[in-house]
Specification:
heterodimer, A: alpha/beta, nine-stranded mixed sheet, 15 helices, 30% helix, 27% strand, B: alpha+beta, Glutaredoxin, four-stranded mixed sheet
Protein backbone atom coordinates (compact mmCIF):
# COMPACT_ATOMS: atom_id res chain seq x y z
CA UNK A 1 0.00 0.00 0.00
CA UNK A 2 1.01 3.59 -0.62
CA UNK A 3 1.72 4.88 2.85
CA UNK A 4 4.03 7.83 2.39
CA UNK A 5 2.24 10.89 3.70
CA UNK A 6 4.09 14.19 3.52
CA UNK A 7 4.72 15.67 6.90
CA UNK A 8 2.75 18.91 6.49
CA UNK A 9 0.14 20.10 8.94
CA UNK A 10 -2.97 18.89 7.18
CA UNK A 11 -6.01 21.10 7.07
CA UNK A 12 -8.87 19.11 8.43
CA UNK A 13 -12.19 19.34 6.60
CA UNK A 14 -15.74 18.73 7.65
CA UNK A 15 -18.16 17.08 5.27
CA UNK A 16 -20.89 19.51 4.36
CA UNK A 17 -23.31 16.78 3.37
CA UNK A 18 -24.06 18.67 0.19
CA UNK A 19 -24.13 15.90 -2.40
CA UNK A 20 -21.22 16.12 -4.78
CA UNK A 21 -19.66 19.14 -3.11
CA UNK A 22 -17.72 17.00 -0.66
CA UNK A 23 -16.21 15.11 -3.58
CA UNK A 24 -15.32 18.26 -5.49
CA UNK A 25 -13.84 19.82 -2.38
CA UNK A 26 -11.96 16.63 -1.44
CA UNK A 27 -13.76 16.28 1.86
CA UNK A 28 -15.83 19.37 2.55
CA UNK A 29 -15.16 22.80 4.02
CA UNK A 30 -11.87 23.52 5.83
CA UNK A 31 -12.63 23.00 9.52
CA UNK A 32 -12.69 26.09 11.67
CA UNK A 33 -12.10 28.32 8.67
CA UNK A 34 -14.29 30.71 6.76
CA UNK A 35 -15.22 29.99 3.16
CA UNK A 36 -16.66 32.64 0.90
CA UNK A 37 -19.47 31.48 -1.40
CA UNK A 38 -19.95 34.07 -4.08
CA UNK A 39 -22.56 34.21 -6.83
CA UNK A 40 -24.89 36.40 -8.84
CA UNK A 41 -28.51 36.97 -7.89
CA UNK A 42 -30.41 33.69 -8.10
CA UNK A 43 -27.33 31.50 -8.02
CA UNK A 44 -28.61 29.55 -4.97
CA UNK A 45 -26.28 31.09 -2.39
CA UNK A 46 -28.93 31.10 0.33
CA UNK A 47 -29.91 27.50 -0.39
CA UNK A 48 -26.26 26.50 -0.14
CA UNK A 49 -25.86 28.40 3.13
CA UNK A 50 -29.00 26.87 4.66
CA UNK A 51 -28.09 23.39 3.44
CA UNK A 52 -24.66 23.55 5.03
CA UNK A 53 -26.36 23.86 8.44
CA UNK A 54 -29.27 21.55 7.64
CA UNK A 55 -26.98 18.67 6.64
CA UNK A 56 -24.88 19.19 9.74
CA UNK A 57 -27.97 18.79 11.90
CA UNK A 58 -29.32 15.82 9.95
CA UNK A 59 -26.07 13.91 9.67
CA UNK A 60 -24.30 14.49 12.93
CA UNK A 61 -26.48 16.69 15.09
CA UNK A 62 -24.08 19.63 14.63
CA UNK A 63 -25.79 22.78 15.86
CA UNK A 64 -25.66 25.75 13.50
CA UNK A 65 -26.06 29.53 13.55
CA UNK A 66 -27.62 31.34 10.63
CA UNK A 67 -26.76 35.03 10.48
CA UNK A 68 -29.10 36.74 8.05
CA UNK A 69 -28.40 40.22 6.75
CA UNK A 70 -30.95 40.22 4.01
CA UNK A 71 -34.11 38.15 4.38
CA UNK A 72 -35.99 37.93 7.63
CA UNK A 73 -35.91 34.62 9.51
CA UNK A 74 -39.62 34.22 8.77
CA UNK A 75 -38.98 34.49 5.03
CA UNK A 76 -36.13 31.99 5.16
CA UNK A 77 -38.19 29.49 7.19
CA UNK A 78 -40.94 29.71 4.61
CA UNK A 79 -38.67 29.60 1.56
CA UNK A 80 -36.73 26.50 2.50
CA UNK A 81 -39.70 24.42 3.58
CA UNK A 82 -40.19 23.16 0.02
CA UNK A 83 -36.61 21.95 0.03
CA UNK A 84 -37.49 19.67 2.92
CA UNK A 85 -36.01 21.66 5.79
CA UNK A 86 -38.29 22.49 8.71
CA UNK A 87 -36.25 25.06 10.56
CA UNK A 88 -38.81 25.57 13.30
CA UNK A 89 -38.37 21.98 14.44
CA UNK A 90 -34.62 22.42 14.65
CA UNK A 91 -35.00 25.77 16.38
CA UNK A 92 -37.19 24.13 19.00
CA UNK A 93 -34.58 21.38 19.44
CA UNK A 94 -31.87 23.97 19.99
CA UNK A 95 -30.01 22.90 16.86
CA UNK A 96 -30.63 26.01 14.80
CA UNK A 97 -30.44 29.62 15.90
CA UNK A 98 -30.96 32.73 13.85
CA UNK A 99 -28.99 35.90 14.40
CA UNK A 100 -31.35 38.33 12.78
CA UNK A 101 -29.40 41.19 11.27
CA UNK A 102 -31.89 41.88 8.51
CA UNK A 103 -32.75 45.54 8.07
CA UNK A 104 -35.98 46.84 9.58
CA UNK A 105 -37.97 48.71 6.98
CA UNK A 106 -38.42 52.34 7.99
CA UNK A 107 -35.74 52.03 10.62
CA UNK A 108 -33.06 54.36 9.39
CA UNK A 109 -30.08 55.16 11.48
CA UNK A 110 -27.85 58.18 11.65
CA UNK A 111 -24.09 57.78 11.80
CA UNK A 112 -22.61 60.32 14.20
CA UNK A 113 -18.96 59.46 14.73
CA UNK A 114 -16.88 56.34 14.91
CA UNK A 115 -18.42 52.93 15.48
CA UNK A 116 -17.69 49.24 15.06
CA UNK A 117 -19.77 46.07 14.67
CA UNK A 118 -19.13 44.89 18.21
CA UNK A 119 -22.79 44.16 18.85
CA UNK A 120 -22.99 41.79 15.88
CA UNK A 121 -19.90 40.02 17.15
CA UNK A 122 -21.30 39.80 20.68
CA UNK A 123 -24.56 38.37 19.35
CA UNK A 124 -22.73 35.79 17.25
CA UNK A 125 -20.53 34.74 20.18
CA UNK A 126 -23.59 34.52 22.40
CA UNK A 127 -25.49 32.42 19.85
CA UNK A 128 -22.56 30.04 19.31
CA UNK A 129 -22.17 29.51 23.05
CA UNK A 130 -25.91 29.18 23.63
CA UNK A 131 -26.39 26.10 21.42
CA UNK A 132 -22.79 24.91 21.15
CA UNK A 133 -22.66 25.59 17.43
CA UNK A 134 -19.88 24.22 15.25
CA UNK A 135 -21.24 25.53 11.94
CA UNK A 136 -22.22 29.03 10.94
CA UNK A 137 -23.63 30.57 7.77
CA UNK A 138 -23.78 34.28 7.01
CA UNK A 139 -26.07 35.41 4.22
CA UNK A 140 -25.27 37.72 2.58
CA UNK A 141 -22.42 40.15 3.06
CA UNK A 142 -23.58 42.64 0.44
CA UNK A 143 -26.52 43.54 2.66
CA UNK A 144 -24.24 44.52 5.56
CA UNK A 145 -22.45 46.93 3.28
CA UNK A 146 -25.81 48.40 2.38
CA UNK A 147 -26.54 49.14 6.06
CA UNK A 148 -23.35 51.05 6.78
CA UNK A 149 -21.57 53.83 4.94
CA UNK A 150 -18.02 52.91 5.81
CA UNK A 151 -17.18 49.89 3.62
CA UNK A 152 -13.59 49.69 4.85
CA UNK A 153 -14.82 49.45 8.42
CA UNK A 154 -17.32 46.73 7.55
CA UNK A 155 -14.58 44.76 5.81
CA UNK A 156 -12.25 44.92 8.75
CA UNK A 157 -15.06 44.03 11.16
CA UNK A 158 -15.99 40.99 9.07
CA UNK A 159 -12.35 40.00 9.18
CA UNK A 160 -12.42 40.30 12.97
CA UNK A 161 -15.56 38.16 13.11
CA UNK A 162 -14.04 35.42 10.96
CA UNK A 163 -10.89 35.46 13.13
CA UNK A 164 -12.98 34.99 16.26
CA UNK A 165 -15.03 32.24 14.66
CA UNK A 166 -11.75 30.49 13.95
CA UNK A 167 -10.79 30.77 17.62
CA UNK A 168 -14.18 29.35 18.53
CA UNK A 169 -13.50 26.45 16.10
CA UNK A 170 -16.64 27.22 14.14
CA UNK A 171 -16.58 26.28 10.47
CA UNK A 172 -18.22 29.12 8.62
CA UNK A 173 -19.58 30.00 5.25
CA UNK A 174 -20.27 33.55 4.11
CA UNK A 175 -22.13 34.36 0.95
CA UNK A 176 -21.51 37.41 -1.17
CA UNK A 177 -22.79 38.92 -4.38
CA UNK A 178 -21.21 39.14 -7.75
CA UNK A 179 -22.42 41.34 -10.57
CA UNK A 180 -21.16 39.16 -13.42
CA UNK A 181 -20.79 35.42 -13.91
CA UNK A 182 -17.22 35.90 -15.07
CA UNK A 183 -15.70 38.93 -13.41
CA UNK A 184 -14.53 40.08 -10.02
CA UNK A 185 -14.94 37.52 -7.26
CA UNK A 186 -17.33 39.51 -5.12
CA UNK A 187 -18.61 43.02 -4.58
CA UNK A 188 -17.07 45.36 -1.99
CA UNK A 189 -13.76 43.50 -2.19
CA UNK A 190 -14.93 41.05 0.46
CA UNK A 191 -12.79 38.24 -0.93
CA UNK A 192 -9.76 40.03 0.48
CA UNK A 193 -10.52 39.20 4.08
CA UNK A 194 -11.70 35.62 3.68
CA UNK A 195 -9.48 34.94 0.72
CA UNK A 196 -8.36 31.55 1.97
CA UNK A 197 -11.30 29.71 0.52
CA UNK A 198 -13.58 30.85 -2.28
CA UNK A 199 -16.40 28.92 -3.94
CA UNK A 200 -18.20 30.44 -6.94
CA UNK A 201 -21.79 29.55 -7.82
CA UNK A 202 -22.88 30.36 -11.36
CA UNK A 203 -26.21 30.46 -13.12
CA UNK A 204 -25.32 30.99 -16.75
CA UNK A 205 -27.69 31.44 -19.64
CA UNK A 206 -26.28 29.39 -22.48
CA UNK A 207 -28.17 28.74 -25.72
CA UNK A 208 -31.40 29.76 -23.99
CA UNK A 209 -30.83 27.18 -21.28
CA UNK A 210 -29.93 27.86 -17.67
CA UNK A 211 -26.94 26.02 -16.46
CA UNK A 212 -25.86 26.08 -12.83
CA UNK A 213 -22.27 25.33 -11.95
CA UNK A 214 -20.04 25.56 -8.92
CA UNK A 215 -16.32 26.07 -8.89
CA UNK A 216 -13.80 26.07 -6.07
CA UNK A 217 -11.61 28.99 -6.91
CA UNK A 218 -9.28 28.86 -3.93
CA UNK A 219 -8.77 26.41 -1.11
CA UNK A 220 -5.60 27.55 0.53
CA UNK A 221 -3.31 24.78 1.62
CA UNK A 222 -5.62 21.96 0.72
CA UNK A 223 -6.59 20.03 -2.37
CA UNK A 224 -9.79 20.21 -4.38
CA UNK A 225 -11.09 19.41 -7.85
CA UNK A 226 -10.60 22.17 -10.38
CA UNK A 227 -13.03 23.63 -12.84
CA UNK A 228 -16.79 24.11 -13.01
CA UNK A 229 -19.15 21.35 -11.97
CA UNK A 230 -22.82 21.38 -12.87
CA UNK A 231 -25.37 21.32 -10.08
CA UNK A 232 -29.08 21.40 -9.72
CA UNK A 233 -31.58 22.09 -6.96
CA UNK A 234 -33.97 19.30 -6.14
CA UNK A 235 -37.07 19.69 -4.04
CA UNK A 236 -36.63 17.86 -0.76
CA UNK A 237 -32.86 17.67 -1.13
CA UNK A 238 -31.41 21.05 -2.02
CA UNK A 239 -28.22 21.54 -3.99
CA UNK A 240 -26.83 18.48 -5.74
CA UNK A 241 -23.52 18.87 -7.49
CA UNK A 242 -22.50 16.52 -10.25
CA UNK A 243 -18.82 15.75 -10.05
CA UNK A 244 -17.29 14.55 -13.31
CA UNK A 245 -13.56 14.25 -13.00
CA UNK A 246 -14.13 13.65 -9.31
CA UNK A 247 -15.18 10.17 -10.28
CA UNK A 248 -12.10 8.06 -10.45
CA UNK A 249 -11.96 5.45 -13.10
CA UNK A 250 -11.48 2.53 -10.81
CA UNK A 251 -13.51 0.08 -12.80
CA UNK A 252 -12.28 -3.44 -12.50
CA UNK A 253 -12.02 -5.11 -15.84
CA UNK A 254 -13.97 -8.24 -15.55
CA UNK A 255 -13.45 -11.16 -17.87
CA UNK A 256 -16.89 -12.51 -17.18
CA UNK A 257 -18.94 -12.61 -20.35
CA UNK A 258 -22.65 -11.95 -20.47
CA UNK A 259 -25.02 -12.62 -23.31
CA UNK A 260 -26.17 -9.85 -25.58
CA UNK A 261 -29.45 -11.70 -25.78
CA UNK A 262 -28.61 -12.78 -29.30
CA UNK A 263 -26.46 -15.88 -29.87
CA UNK A 264 -25.18 -14.75 -33.25
CA UNK A 265 -24.17 -11.34 -31.90
CA UNK A 266 -22.49 -13.06 -28.92
CA UNK A 267 -20.45 -15.10 -31.37
CA UNK A 268 -19.43 -11.96 -33.26
CA UNK A 269 -18.23 -10.37 -30.02
CA UNK A 270 -16.10 -13.36 -29.18
CA UNK A 271 -18.53 -14.89 -26.69
CA UNK A 272 -20.74 -12.04 -25.48
CA UNK A 273 -20.23 -8.63 -23.89
CA UNK A 274 -18.05 -8.20 -20.84
CA UNK A 275 -20.00 -7.95 -17.60
CA UNK A 276 -18.94 -4.47 -16.59
CA UNK A 277 -18.65 -2.72 -19.89
CA UNK A 278 -20.34 0.12 -21.69
CA UNK A 279 -21.74 -0.75 -25.09
CA UNK A 280 -22.79 1.85 -27.63
CA UNK A 281 -25.24 0.89 -30.36
CA UNK A 282 -25.29 3.49 -33.09
CA UNK A 283 -27.49 3.71 -36.15
CA UNK A 284 -30.06 5.68 -38.08
CA UNK A 285 -33.71 5.58 -37.18
CA UNK A 286 -35.27 2.17 -37.79
CA UNK A 287 -32.03 0.23 -38.09
CA UNK A 288 -32.78 -1.91 -35.05
CA UNK A 289 -31.36 -0.14 -32.03
CA UNK A 290 -34.43 -0.65 -29.92
CA UNK A 291 -34.44 -4.29 -31.00
CA UNK A 292 -30.88 -4.84 -29.77
CA UNK A 293 -31.85 -3.09 -26.53
CA UNK A 294 -34.86 -5.36 -26.14
CA UNK A 295 -32.82 -8.49 -26.72
CA UNK A 296 -30.14 -7.28 -24.34
CA UNK A 297 -32.74 -6.87 -21.57
CA UNK A 298 -34.59 -10.09 -22.34
CA UNK A 299 -31.30 -12.03 -22.47
CA UNK A 300 -30.38 -10.72 -19.03
CA UNK A 301 -33.76 -11.32 -17.45
CA UNK A 302 -33.82 -14.89 -18.83
CA UNK A 303 -30.64 -15.52 -16.83
CA UNK A 304 -32.22 -14.07 -13.70
CA UNK A 305 -30.44 -10.70 -13.94
CA UNK A 306 -32.13 -7.47 -12.95
CA UNK A 307 -32.58 -5.21 -15.95
CA UNK A 308 -33.37 -1.51 -16.11
CA UNK A 309 -34.43 0.45 -19.18
CA UNK A 310 -34.58 4.22 -19.49
CA UNK A 311 -36.64 5.02 -22.57
CA UNK A 312 -36.62 8.58 -23.87
CA UNK A 313 -38.05 8.02 -27.33
CA UNK A 314 -41.00 5.71 -27.12
CA UNK A 315 -43.96 5.35 -24.83
CA UNK A 316 -44.42 2.34 -22.61
CA UNK A 317 -47.18 0.96 -24.85
CA UNK A 318 -45.03 1.26 -27.96
CA UNK A 319 -42.07 -0.38 -26.29
CA UNK A 320 -44.09 -3.27 -24.95
CA UNK A 321 -45.82 -3.79 -28.29
CA UNK A 322 -42.52 -3.76 -30.13
CA UNK A 323 -40.97 -6.20 -27.68
CA UNK A 324 -43.97 -8.48 -28.12
CA UNK A 325 -43.45 -8.37 -31.87
CA UNK A 326 -39.90 -9.64 -31.39
CA UNK A 327 -40.86 -12.42 -29.00
CA UNK A 328 -40.09 -10.69 -25.71
CA UNK A 329 -42.88 -10.25 -23.18
CA UNK A 330 -41.94 -7.18 -21.16
CA UNK A 331 -45.13 -7.29 -19.13
CA UNK A 332 -44.29 -10.70 -17.69
CA UNK A 333 -40.72 -9.67 -17.06
CA UNK A 334 -41.84 -6.60 -15.13
CA UNK A 335 -44.24 -8.69 -13.08
CA UNK A 336 -41.42 -11.05 -12.21
CA UNK A 337 -39.53 -8.05 -10.85
CA UNK A 338 -36.51 -8.60 -13.08
CA UNK A 339 -37.30 -5.75 -15.44
CA UNK A 340 -38.03 -2.12 -14.78
CA UNK A 341 -38.96 0.20 -17.61
CA UNK A 342 -38.77 3.95 -16.95
CA UNK A 343 -40.18 6.16 -19.70
CA UNK A 344 -39.65 9.90 -19.68
CA UNK A 345 -39.84 12.79 -22.06
CA UNK A 346 -36.43 14.38 -22.44
CA UNK A 347 -38.09 17.80 -22.17
CA UNK A 348 -39.75 16.97 -18.84
CA UNK A 349 -36.68 18.05 -16.88
CA UNK A 350 -33.24 19.51 -17.24
CA UNK A 351 -30.42 17.13 -18.02
CA UNK A 352 -29.01 17.51 -14.52
CA UNK A 353 -32.38 16.56 -13.05
CA UNK A 354 -32.64 13.57 -15.38
CA UNK A 355 -29.19 12.46 -14.30
CA UNK A 356 -30.03 12.68 -10.63
CA UNK A 357 -33.27 10.80 -11.06
CA UNK A 358 -31.57 8.10 -13.12
CA UNK A 359 -28.86 7.68 -10.48
CA UNK A 360 -31.52 7.43 -7.79
CA UNK A 361 -33.42 4.75 -9.70
CA UNK A 362 -30.22 2.81 -10.37
CA UNK A 363 -29.28 2.95 -6.70
CA UNK A 364 -32.67 1.71 -5.60
CA UNK A 365 -33.30 -0.93 -8.23
CA UNK A 366 -29.72 -2.28 -8.19
CA UNK A 367 -29.79 -3.62 -11.73
CA UNK A 368 -27.26 -5.96 -13.35
CA UNK A 369 -27.93 -4.39 -16.73
CA UNK A 370 -28.88 -0.88 -17.71
CA UNK A 371 -30.04 0.28 -21.12
CA UNK A 372 -30.72 3.84 -22.28
CA UNK A 373 -32.71 4.25 -25.50
CA UNK A 374 -31.69 6.68 -26.71
CA UNK A 375 -28.93 8.91 -25.52
CA UNK A 376 -29.43 11.15 -28.52
CA UNK A 377 -32.95 12.10 -27.46
CA UNK A 378 -31.41 13.81 -24.44
CA UNK A 379 -29.17 15.93 -26.64
CA UNK A 380 -32.18 18.06 -27.43
CA UNK A 381 -32.50 19.43 -23.91
CA UNK A 382 -28.92 20.44 -23.27
CA UNK A 383 -26.04 22.48 -24.50
CA UNK A 384 -23.23 20.46 -26.10
CA UNK A 385 -21.11 21.02 -23.02
CA UNK A 386 -23.90 20.05 -20.67
CA UNK A 387 -24.57 16.93 -22.70
CA UNK A 388 -20.94 15.91 -22.68
CA UNK A 389 -20.86 16.26 -18.90
CA UNK A 390 -24.03 14.24 -18.62
CA UNK A 391 -22.64 11.41 -20.72
CA UNK A 392 -19.38 11.31 -18.80
CA UNK A 393 -21.12 11.47 -15.47
CA UNK A 394 -23.67 8.76 -16.23
CA UNK A 395 -21.17 6.37 -17.80
CA UNK A 396 -18.72 6.72 -14.94
CA UNK A 397 -21.54 6.26 -12.45
CA UNK A 398 -22.61 3.07 -14.21
CA UNK A 399 -19.04 1.82 -14.34
CA UNK A 400 -18.86 2.32 -10.60
CA UNK A 401 -21.83 0.05 -10.16
CA UNK A 402 -19.96 -2.64 -12.07
CA UNK A 403 -22.85 -3.51 -14.28
CA UNK A 404 -23.30 -3.64 -18.04
CA UNK A 405 -24.63 -0.52 -19.73
CA UNK A 406 -26.00 -0.40 -23.25
CA UNK A 407 -26.74 2.97 -24.83
CA UNK A 408 -28.17 3.75 -28.18
CA UNK A 409 -27.31 6.75 -30.34
CA UNK A 410 -29.24 7.89 -33.36
CA UNK A 411 -27.25 9.06 -36.36
CA UNK A 412 -28.79 12.04 -38.10
CA UNK A 413 -28.51 10.76 -41.66
CA UNK A 414 -29.94 7.49 -42.88
CA UNK A 415 -26.81 6.43 -44.67
CA UNK A 416 -23.69 6.42 -42.54
CA UNK A 417 -22.50 9.37 -40.57
CA UNK A 418 -21.87 9.79 -36.88
CA UNK A 419 -23.88 11.41 -34.14
CA UNK A 420 -22.72 13.91 -31.59
CA UNK A 421 -23.45 11.32 -28.95
CA UNK A 422 -20.96 9.01 -30.58
CA UNK A 423 -18.13 11.48 -30.48
CA UNK A 424 -18.81 12.21 -26.81
CA UNK A 425 -19.13 8.67 -25.72
CA UNK A 426 -16.96 6.58 -28.02
CA UNK A 427 -13.83 6.89 -25.92
CA UNK A 428 -15.76 5.91 -22.82
CA UNK A 429 -17.26 2.82 -24.32
CA UNK A 430 -15.81 -0.62 -24.30
CA UNK A 431 -17.75 -1.82 -27.32
CA UNK A 432 -19.33 -0.11 -30.29
CA UNK A 433 -21.89 -1.74 -32.53
CA UNK A 434 -22.83 0.05 -35.73
CA UNK A 435 -26.12 -0.50 -37.51
CA UNK A 436 -26.42 0.80 -41.06
CA UNK A 437 -28.74 0.80 -44.02
CA UNK A 438 -27.32 -0.50 -47.28
CA UNK A 439 -29.02 0.35 -50.52
CA UNK A 440 -28.50 -2.59 -52.87
CA UNK A 441 -30.18 -3.36 -56.14
CA UNK A 442 -33.11 -1.11 -55.42
CA UNK A 443 -33.80 -2.32 -51.89
CA UNK A 444 -32.81 -1.20 -48.41
CA UNK A 445 -31.03 -3.81 -46.38
CA UNK A 446 -29.66 -3.59 -42.87
CA UNK A 447 -26.21 -4.47 -41.70
CA UNK A 448 -24.36 -4.69 -38.42
CA UNK A 449 -20.71 -4.53 -37.54
CA UNK A 450 -18.82 -4.65 -34.28
CA UNK A 451 -16.45 -1.72 -34.51
CA UNK A 452 -14.73 -2.06 -31.18
CA UNK A 453 -14.56 -4.68 -28.49
CA UNK A 454 -12.12 -3.71 -25.78
CA UNK A 455 -9.99 -6.52 -24.51
CA UNK A 456 -11.22 -9.16 -26.88
CA UNK A 457 -11.06 -10.41 -30.41
CA UNK A 458 -14.18 -9.90 -32.42
CA UNK A 459 -15.53 -10.57 -35.87
CA UNK A 460 -14.77 -7.64 -38.15
CA UNK A 461 -17.27 -8.56 -40.84
CA UNK A 462 -20.14 -6.37 -41.89
CA UNK A 463 -23.11 -8.70 -41.65
CA UNK A 464 -26.53 -8.36 -43.15
CA UNK A 465 -29.36 -9.02 -40.74
CA UNK A 466 -33.09 -9.59 -40.84
CA UNK A 467 -35.75 -8.96 -38.25
CA UNK A 468 -38.73 -11.24 -37.70
CA UNK A 469 -41.05 -12.36 -34.93
CA UNK A 470 -38.17 -14.08 -33.23
CA UNK A 471 -35.95 -10.99 -33.16
CA UNK A 472 -32.72 -10.29 -35.03
CA UNK A 473 -31.00 -12.80 -37.26
CA UNK A 474 -27.51 -12.17 -38.55
CA UNK A 475 -26.78 -13.42 -42.04
CA UNK A 476 -23.90 -13.33 -44.48
CA UNK A 477 -21.22 -10.70 -44.68
CA UNK A 478 -21.36 -8.15 -47.47
CA UNK A 479 -18.10 -9.31 -48.99
CA UNK A 480 -18.64 -7.70 -52.38
CA UNK A 481 -19.66 -4.25 -51.20
CA UNK A 482 -17.46 -1.37 -50.09
CA UNK A 483 -18.21 2.02 -48.64
CA UNK A 484 -21.04 0.91 -46.35
CA UNK A 485 -19.84 2.79 -43.30
CA UNK A 486 -19.13 5.88 -45.35
CA UNK A 487 -22.75 5.83 -46.45
CA UNK A 488 -21.82 5.16 -50.05
CA UNK A 489 -22.09 1.41 -50.73
CA UNK A 490 -20.65 0.23 -54.03
CA UNK A 491 -20.60 -3.27 -55.39
CA UNK A 492 -17.21 -4.64 -56.26
CA UNK A 493 -16.75 -7.59 -58.58
CA UNK A 494 -16.30 -10.92 -56.85
CA UNK A 495 -12.75 -11.91 -56.20
CA UNK A 496 -11.30 -8.41 -56.22
CA UNK A 497 -10.46 -7.26 -52.72
CA UNK A 498 -12.16 -4.08 -51.65
CA UNK A 499 -9.84 -1.09 -51.35
CA UNK B 1 -45.32 66.71 40.24
CA UNK B 2 -43.66 67.97 37.06
CA UNK B 3 -45.06 71.14 35.61
CA UNK B 4 -47.71 70.57 32.93
CA UNK B 5 -45.89 72.54 30.27
CA UNK B 6 -42.54 70.82 30.85
CA UNK B 7 -40.31 69.74 27.98
CA UNK B 8 -40.80 66.05 27.16
CA UNK B 9 -38.60 63.73 29.13
CA UNK B 10 -36.28 61.70 26.90
CA UNK B 11 -35.66 57.99 27.39
CA UNK B 12 -32.36 57.03 25.78
CA UNK B 13 -30.86 53.54 25.65
CA UNK B 14 -27.20 53.31 24.86
CA UNK B 15 -25.63 50.02 23.79
CA UNK B 16 -21.90 49.64 24.39
CA UNK B 17 -19.40 46.85 24.96
CA UNK B 18 -17.47 46.79 28.23
CA UNK B 19 -15.95 49.86 29.83
CA UNK B 20 -13.24 50.86 27.42
CA UNK B 21 -11.96 54.41 27.05
CA UNK B 22 -13.88 54.53 23.80
CA UNK B 23 -17.08 53.69 25.62
CA UNK B 24 -16.35 56.34 28.26
CA UNK B 25 -15.63 58.85 25.53
CA UNK B 26 -18.95 58.14 23.83
CA UNK B 27 -20.90 58.41 27.09
CA UNK B 28 -19.24 61.75 27.90
CA UNK B 29 -19.99 63.14 24.45
CA UNK B 30 -23.59 62.09 24.72
CA UNK B 31 -24.11 63.48 28.22
CA UNK B 32 -22.64 66.83 27.20
CA UNK B 33 -25.09 67.11 24.29
CA UNK B 34 -28.06 65.96 26.38
CA UNK B 35 -27.29 68.30 29.28
CA UNK B 36 -27.29 71.21 26.83
CA UNK B 37 -30.29 70.20 24.83
CA UNK B 38 -32.76 68.63 27.23
CA UNK B 39 -33.69 71.14 29.91
CA UNK B 40 -36.60 68.91 30.80
CA UNK B 41 -34.22 66.16 31.66
CA UNK B 42 -33.54 62.78 30.24
CA UNK B 43 -32.92 59.24 31.35
CA UNK B 44 -29.91 57.42 29.92
CA UNK B 45 -29.77 53.65 30.30
CA UNK B 46 -26.43 52.09 29.39
CA UNK B 47 -26.55 48.45 28.30
CA UNK B 48 -23.43 46.34 27.95
CA UNK B 49 -24.06 43.90 25.05
CA UNK B 50 -21.30 41.58 26.25
CA UNK B 51 -23.21 41.14 29.53
CA UNK B 52 -26.68 41.26 27.99
CA UNK B 53 -26.43 39.91 24.44
CA UNK B 54 -30.08 38.82 24.46
CA UNK B 55 -31.20 42.45 24.58
CA UNK B 56 -28.91 43.26 21.65
CA UNK B 57 -30.49 40.37 19.76
CA UNK B 58 -34.00 41.53 20.58
CA UNK B 59 -33.25 45.09 19.50
CA UNK B 60 -31.27 43.88 16.49
CA UNK B 61 -28.21 45.94 17.32
CA UNK B 62 -25.19 45.54 15.04
CA UNK B 63 -23.00 48.56 15.58
CA UNK B 64 -21.54 49.97 18.78
CA UNK B 65 -22.18 52.41 20.23
CA UNK B 66 -25.86 52.48 19.26
CA UNK B 67 -28.26 54.92 20.83
CA UNK B 68 -31.99 54.30 20.69
CA UNK B 69 -34.27 57.18 21.55
CA UNK B 70 -37.27 55.21 22.82
CA UNK B 71 -39.41 58.15 23.83
CA UNK B 72 -40.78 60.46 22.83
CA UNK B 73 -41.84 58.61 19.70
CA UNK B 74 -40.87 58.09 16.94
CA UNK B 75 -38.01 55.88 18.00
CA UNK B 76 -34.71 56.76 16.37
CA UNK B 77 -31.29 55.22 16.15
CA UNK B 78 -27.90 56.85 16.13
CA UNK B 79 -24.64 54.97 15.82
CA UNK B 80 -21.16 56.28 16.49
CA UNK B 81 -19.30 57.92 19.36
CA UNK B 82 -21.44 61.13 19.22
CA UNK B 83 -18.43 63.24 18.25
CA UNK B 84 -20.53 64.86 15.54
CA UNK B 85 -23.04 66.94 17.48
CA UNK B 86 -24.99 68.14 14.46
CA UNK B 87 -25.64 64.58 13.37
CA UNK B 88 -26.64 63.55 16.89
CA UNK B 89 -29.20 66.33 17.05
CA UNK B 90 -30.48 65.50 13.58
CA UNK B 91 -30.69 61.87 14.65
CA UNK B 92 -32.71 62.79 17.70
CA UNK B 93 -35.08 64.79 15.57
CA UNK B 94 -33.90 68.14 16.93
CA UNK B 95 -32.90 70.93 14.61
CA UNK B 96 -29.33 72.07 15.13
CA UNK B 97 -28.91 75.49 16.77
Amino acid sequence: MFTHVPNYPQIEKIETGITGFDLISSGGLPKGRTTLVSGTAGSAKTVFAVQFLAEGIKRSGDAGIFVTFEESPADIRRNVKSLGWDLEVWEAEGKWLFVDASPDPGQDQVEAGRYDLGALLARIEYAVAKIGATRLSMDSLGAVFAQFRDAALVRSELFRISAILRQLKVTSLMTSERTQEYGEIARFGVEEFVADNVVILRNVLEDEKRRRTMEILKYRGTSHQKGEFPFTIVSGRGVLAIPLSAMELKQKSSNVRITSGNKELDAMCGGGFFRDSIILVSGATGTGKTLITTEFLKGGADKGERCLLFAFEESREQLFRNADGWGSNFEELEESGLLKVVCAYPESASLEDHLIEMKDIIEHFKPNRIAVDSFSALERVATPKGFREFVISLTSFIKHQEVAGLFTATTPSLMGGTSVTESHISTLTDSIILLRYVEMNGSMRRCLTVLKMRGSLHDKDILEFNIDGGGMHLGEPFRHVTGILAGNPRETPYGIPAI
Amino acid sequence: MPPVDAEPRYLLKLFVAGSSTRTGHAINNLRRICDDEFPGGYELVVIDVVEQPAIAEEKKILALPTLIKESPLPARRIIGDFSDKEKVLAGLGLAAH
